[in-house]
Predict the structure.
Amino acid sequence: MNVEVGMRIGELTVSLTRADLVRYAGASTDFNPIHWSDRAAQALGLESVIAHGMLTMGAALRVVTDWAGDPAAVRRYAARFTKPVVVPDDDQGAQVRCVGTVTAVGDGVVTVSVEVTCGADKVLGAVTADVSIEGRE
Amino acid sequence: MPISEAHVGRTYEPTAPYEVSAAKIAEFAAALGDTNPAYAGDAPIAPPTFAAVIGAAAWDQLFADPELDLALHRVVHGDQTFVFHRPLKAGDRVVGVLGIDKVRCRGALEIVGVTVRVKTVDGDPVVDSSSTFVHTRSAS
């Protein structure tokens, strides 16, 4: 497989509604009320309910795993939660855009960076995944 | 006494053994909106961030520790790193061991770094999940 620094590996837009947050709360067992109660979110100075950082992070990784094919190839995955993804109580929810680019090619491992934005906000920072490419043609 | 740098190095007992099931993997993948075929079929692996499920059980110990006096509803997740030794898969029986890596207090803000080491019940490493939390201490 020919992989070069700067190569765009893929992009996707994830839409997150309040229903998606409730579903993720149940699946992950993270029941922090700031992800389902406006009252709790506002008590922390947030505009309203925000998405779980781990939901945004997990959904963004799909850019990498769709490209890699086998999710088991991911060896390391890191992100900073730079801005909250505010999820309005409507049918559209928040639109999170994810764009993946190769930033380093090492011995059998490729490092991918993912730009994750919601509107004009960069909601995740320093999003990097190390992916094993050993055995790939 | 709330949490302080004196708590760095504290570790907790392993979480109760958790058996990864195909049904939970399917539920988690659906919650991420991810239809990768590796998460379905007879021998599914879990999405990499599934480690959050075991992590959440370990985090509960942190929020239940009366000495730290941390409230989950006053916490925002600051950053997250996963280091994968191998994928979690259906049938795995795993535990999480949480340790406090760092504590910084800045006025009402407490920045707490923790790592949950997820291992099989036999002790084989599966994934290490490191998180930074920002806790806002209530003025009261």
